[in-house]
């Protein structure tokens, strides 16, 4: 069964996502990131600027298929296109289709009202499906 984690109270959602991806990549995990086209473009730009010393190899749906296949971090608006990855990171508002095919799903929740509201809806969906959810309150712990 997929392990589902909610990382909530992320004051800088994209910066937190960058650090989370860096940490997971450092552990040798393959990561799929799903969200809106705008969110994925912003994350792509953030990965190029968040650290002067780290490079996280990643690809988007616009990249050639061989580049995508070789990338340990892949972005796509359609989570079904991210099959075979260890972890799915959701930056979207909806429950990602096919999430149960991943070992782990991480929901990053910002502090804004819209983000909290949509996260609550996803939380209810997962619990109704019988998942035990883990929660990480980022206001109480240090970043990854």
CATH T-level topology:
Rossmann fold
Approximate strand percentage: 15-25%
Total strands: 7
Shape summary: globular
Mean of residue pLDDT values: 95
Order of strands, widest sheet: 3-4-2-5-6-1-7
Distance between the termini: 24 Å
Order of helices and strands: EHEHEHEEEHE
Notes on the structure:
It comes from Limnohabitans parvus II-B4. This is DNA polymerase III subunit chi. Pfam families: DNA_pol3_chi. One of its GO terms (biological process) is positive regulation of DNA-templated DNA replication initiation. GO terms for molecular function: DNA binding; DNA-directed DNA polymerase activity. With 144 residues, the chain is of the alpha/beta class. The protein has a single domain, classed as Rossmann fold. The chain is 34% helix and 24% strand. It has a seven-stranded parallel sheet, sandwiched between helices. Helix 1 crosses helix 2. It starts with a strand and ends in a 7-residue tail after the last strand. The mean pLDDT is 95.
What does this entry show, briefly?
Helices cover 34% and strands 24% of the residues. The chain has four helices and seven strands, in the order βαβαβαβββαβ.
Lay out the secondary structure.
Elements: E1 3-10, H1 13-26, E2 31-34, H2 37-49, E3 58-59, H3 65-70, E4 73-76, E5 87-90, E6 104-110, H4 113-128, E7 133-137
Parallel strand pairs: 1-6, 1-7, 2-4, 2-5, 3-4, 5-6
């Amino acid at each position: 069964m997929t392990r589902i984690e909610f990382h909530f109270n992320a004051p800088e959602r994209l910066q937190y996502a960058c650090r989370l991806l860096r940490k997971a990549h450092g552990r040798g995990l393959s990561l799929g990131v799903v969200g809106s086209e705008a969110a994925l473009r912003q994350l792509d730009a953030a990965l190029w600027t968040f650290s002067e010393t780290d490079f996280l190899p990643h690809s988007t749906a616009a990249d050639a298929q061989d580049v995508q296949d070789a990338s340990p971090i892949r972005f796509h608006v359609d989570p079904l296109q991210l099959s075979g990855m260890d972890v799915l990171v959701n930056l979207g508002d909806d429950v990602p289709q096919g999430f149960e095919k991943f070992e782990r799903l991480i929901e990053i929740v910002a502090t804004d009202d819209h983000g909290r509201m949509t996260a609550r809806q996803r939380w209810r969906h997962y619990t109704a499906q019988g998942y035990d959810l883990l929660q990480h309150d980022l206001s109480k712990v240090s970043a990854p």
